[in-house]
Amino acid sequence: MSGAPTLVIPEVEVSVTAACSLACAQCGFFVPDQPRPFDGPAQDGLIQALTVLEQAGVRITSLALLGGEATLAPAALLACAQVARASPAVERVEVVTNGLTPKGLPAALLPLIDRLSLSDYTADDELASAWARFLERVAPEVEFRRRRHGQWDPVDTLVDLGVEGGQRAYDACWYRRHCVTLERGRLFVCSRLPKRRHDEAGLPLRAGLTADRISAHLQAPAAPTACRFCSQMAGLPGVVPGRQPDDRLPKLRARALTWLAQTR
Ligand code: SF4
Ligand code: SF4
Asked: Of all atoms in ligand 2, which is nearest to the CA of residue 224?
């Protein structure tokens, strides 16, 4: 990209896999029903999308690679990080992980990323401390962040807010400011739309697209039809984050702690 960007998008999310090691109730990414994020290899779709955005004069301040759980797809994660790092459209490359399968983190990945964010669903500070110590040993230049979740918005409650209610939800939507998503060759204003297969609500990223057209899509005054049925912005009571159907979380946590302590 030459000269100043004509459009800055602060955050863009890219799923490298639909699979996850956890099975959180009310998963905002609809695991295990999340569709495949790319039609072909993830890195091919990402190259194509970032090339279109770069040629349109777009700059992405932070591109987050996530899942599902990104470390379950190490080859795709590494390939996408290489693509993002090489793209003039991307400033910061971030990986978001639940931290429970660290052995899926390719060694070659760490020099490519600026930040690793731990979405921590464990009950204490041990996993976060173990990750902090691990990164300090092997990649001190990578910024470490831990995200602790408060209450989640319910994702799978059936609602019909009506046309006006859907518009109000869209106008006030938190996700539109934080979860612009690139998926299956399209740009979406939030992650819910692609994860619920509302591909018709995404902007196809094709050669010749302009920054004005992309901006118009992200700032469109009219809500997508799907907002009418969005429980995440329906003002419903929050739900407990990260609740599992079994004891996988403590088991994975124990294995992760061992791996993080032993790996140099
Ligand atoms: S860690 Fe939980 S919330 Fe995150 S993608 Fe996996 S199942 Fe969903
Ligand atoms: S579908 Fe829900 S999360 Fe997405 S823009 Fe509409 S109100 Fe926001």
From this structure: 6
